[in-house]
Each structure stands twice: as C-alpha cells, then as structure tokens.
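Researcher: Next sequence.
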Amino acid sequence: MKILKPFIAMLVLGIALSSCKKSDDSKPATTTTSSMTFTANGTAVKFNTCLEADISLNNVNEVVIAGTNITNGKAAASSFTITIMQDPATLKAGQTFAVSSSGTTSLAYYVTDSETDQTQVVNPQGTVTITDVSSTVIKGTFSAKLFDAGDFEGQTVTYTITSGTFTAQRPS
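Model: Next structure:
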C-alpha cells in the first residue's frame, strides 16, 4: 500500500497538470470545480481536487476516484481514493457499489505519509453511489468503515466515514 500512495499522488497531479491546456477559443471556458468532502470520525475533511483515473490491470478495468489538496501544483500528503472494478464507459447515475469480500470496490484514506486506513475484504463495510455521469464529470456519495492497512482481519475500526461526496473531473 505504501507503493500505491506515491503512484496515486503522481497520477492525480499528472492528470491535473495535463488537463490544463491553452485554448485559442475566444468564448469563455466552462469550468467544473472538482472536490471531495466527507466526515471522518465526526471531523469534516475537504479536498480541493478530485480526479477520475481509468486503469486496466490484468485486463480488469478499474475506475479510481482520488481526492487531495493541491496547492501551487503540489499534492498534499493526505488523500482519499475510491476504487471500483468497473468499465468506466458503463458507469451510470443511480448505480450503487458495495464494498465486498471480493474486493471489487474499496476505499482508502491516506491520512499522512505513514498512515493508511482502508476497507478490508474480510469485514467489508461501505458503499459508493454514482449520482451523475457526464463526459467531463462524475459525481457521487460514499460512506465506509475503515481499518488500519495492517489490520487484515478488519477487527478495529479506525475511521467511520460518513456524508462523503465527490465531484471528479474525468479524463479527457
């Protein structure tokens, strides 16, 4: 999981920077504000950037929705990811994905560089609901019970995530 965090941070930053392009179009550009918010153990958390990345690993399509704070082009240490094993082209508003023992949907909170908390397949607790899908944005809600990354038995909840929302910029 420690290897995955730098990869996700680079992925989010890369997508954010590559999606910036000069336009010679004279009409004003329409911008969508991306963000992710949730409550972790009663404390409000807000990320100013939320991006979708579409990944294919071993011929399995995955959608990764990553939230972080980017300031002056630099991603913060803290981030949150939602991973759904689903072809991104088939996502539709109204779909709900439950965290399951098969690992098809997972959530992870990278609180600091040294602390990762995530859903566990042996004690799956959480859902992600897609509320809107367009060619440029995907929106949804989420909640979950997270465990320390080393708690493979899912015995001690470290974070209860509630009231989660995201507006993620889709890859162009």
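Model: The radius of gyration is 16 Å. The helical segments are 4-18.
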